[in-house]
Write a structure and sequence with these properties.
heterodimer, A: 469 residues, alpha/beta, 7-stranded mixed sheet, elongated, B: 362 residues, 6-stranded parallel sheet, 15 helices, 12 strands, 18% strand, globular
Amino acid sequence: MAEDVVQLIKEDIEELLKAKRTGKAAEFSGPINFYPSEEQPLDDFSWAMEQAAAQSQVDISQVSVFSRRPLWGALATFYKRVVRKSTYWLLNPLFGQISLFNDAVLNALNKLILKVKNLDVRFEQDLEPLINRKLQERLNSFEHLVETQVDEKFKEEEKRFEQRVNRLQTEITCLFEQCTNKLETDQAILDITQGIQNVMQKIEILRHSLTDYRSESAFLRAKLAVTLQKIRTRKLTEPNVSEEDSLDETLGSSTWLYYIFEQQFRGTESMIKEKQRPYLPDIQKAFATCGGYVLEIGSGRGEFLELCREANIPAKGVDFNEAMINRCREKDLDVEKEDGLVYLQSIPDESLCALTAFQVVEHLTPDQILQLVQNAFIKLKPGGAMILETVNPDSLFAIKNFYLDLSHKRPVPSLTLQFILESVGLREVEVRLSSPVPEEMQLTGQDEATKMINDFLFGCQDYAVVGWR
Amino acid sequence: MNSSISILLPALSAYDAIGNDVLAEYELLKKSGLDVNIFAEYYEPQFSRLIADKKRILETDALLYHHGVRWDFGESLLKNSSAPIKIMKYHNVTPSEFFSDYSPYLFELVEEGRQQTNRLAQSCTHFLADSVYNCEELLELGIPASKCKVVAPFAQVEELLSLQADLVSLEKRIRANRIHVLFVGRQAPNKGLHHFIRVADAFSRLFGKKACFTWIGGRDTTLVRYYQEIEDYLHEKSLQDIVLFPGKIPASHLKAYYLSSNVFLSVSEHEGFCVPIIEAQALGVPVIALGRTAVTGTIGEGQLVLEDLDYDKFAAAIAVLFNNPYYNNYVSTHGKKNYLEHFSKEVLQENFLKTLEEVLMA
């Protein structure tokens, strides 16, 4: 059965193709009729009538009196026969009447069927053509009526239209004259304002589309840049990081030394955690928008990963310092010992809700910063966030401490970092200052000059750029 | 069954056919009371809690190695393990000729993957294949038939069935008032994307631009030349508004695409199983397919399978199925039956457990 229908479908396909190729598509017979014909109900009814006629006669002598019981069988048969015979005179007239009634009903039904069939034939022979003819006549007269009326109406409308056109022409001429004479009237200004508003609305819609296209093109541009970089270095899976410049080299060569240095100069873990807490709402917003997970480059002692864990946001850290990795693993955090850029390139595109790097970019060369931002951009999901925190070179106090860390390469001004994020394609990029110098260390005085000197000497020590995909 | 078993795969990630198979196997075996571990060299962070230590893997009684791509580390694990039972679950590796004109990188990768299949056939003791087609490939390598069983992969069809479809996409597609033809899978030469667009062209030529051909699935960065050929063809035939590529989309959107489709069209030339056909059948979408490799086995009975790559014939098949409600209903009913009888979660679970028990008890 299954193969039969599939075969039928295939035959229909061939038939349709043949019809299409010969330009006779209308000849395609189309679906097969799987439903009973219109004649079917009447035929079924005739069959039912035949069955009823066969059962219509009621006769007491047809009632069986035979019994097969052993011993008692002959006696029972005899008894039944006696009863049938003795009641025959009483019941037979009644059964006769029932048979007569059955015959009458059957007769009436047969007449009805005949009538229906005749009507059917008459309808086909006489009434259908008659109805069709009448319908055609009515249709013709209606068409004629409609045509005449439409024609009249059309002429009327044409006349009215001409009149209106003439009137409008006159009005336009008047208006034109008025406009030329009173170009600066209130009405004209209102019209122009309305026009400008419409145009502004259109510009706004276009601006939205443009933003979307820009975002898309920025993503593709970043992807292209990364791909070109790969082609240039002829490495498909490895990043363009030379040995002497890699993060491993700068941070990993003296793991214990750097770990102790962090303990002493960066601050306690709880303090750093509190400093990083203000960025958590951004991460929560990004995670709620696009899912995925957070990747932290240079995760250090895992303060930010802990914050993410507390907020139930999946997060992973990458660091090259063995001592830092061990500290994170003590806290059961998900970290990997790997060069940040290498790891970033290995994950699928559009898989992160956020990328964070605290106090990392000052360890990188300009090329590496650009590569980091480009790669991070294509790994972010739409709606994801990028947060890069570093030392604020606008504060002399911060600059004084900058070279305490020997692995620092150069301070990166906030405007430069903001520019890099924006040029790669991130949106709504903002600079946020953090770690203010305690007031007791600043100059006292409320005058403008003291304020300016305080800002210059004791401005906030860190800043972060926050951008959105 | 009270032994310990480790499931090995190169990478564990969401929305991946092998990943879905592994996760379902893990849950099922754990529920059955088995000591079960997963090992993946690469994995997404959300799966980190499932990944066992390499040392633990080497100590287990049995290994279930998922093979679908070249994996050197996995092969070394298999060699170093002293487990008496080493099972290979074969998902098939695409033949290299599909990539020879487009990507030397993929060509080399699958070529080496196929060579690895030969080596793995020597080091494994038992074999599970996704389909009869995969099983036949293994038998050709000289593996005895008694060691090789067909066990279909677990897919997330039930999840798709219970999911709320994205109403915006659904309404948009239904309102478009066009014949929607769909395929779901990676955009790759073996999946027949170049045939798919030619069917779209044939349909437009024969029946007018009344249909919308949608291909859902990601692109491979190394197949740039292939995609250029596709774009050129679409441009030349002015089919850009007929053939659509929404890329990778969330599951709720995917369900909306399935539900609003009139036909699921597969012109794939190489499949190890083809999960999307089962998804389409489960959601009642009639399937038209090119009868190659594992597709013939997966699709089941009473389905429209065409043997020749005649684009006009595929186009006519879409028109006939769309215009005839009886045929349409017939094909989709049989598709649903195929899913319920052979690929529903209960059936797959029973088959997997039974087969694994036979292997572990042997």
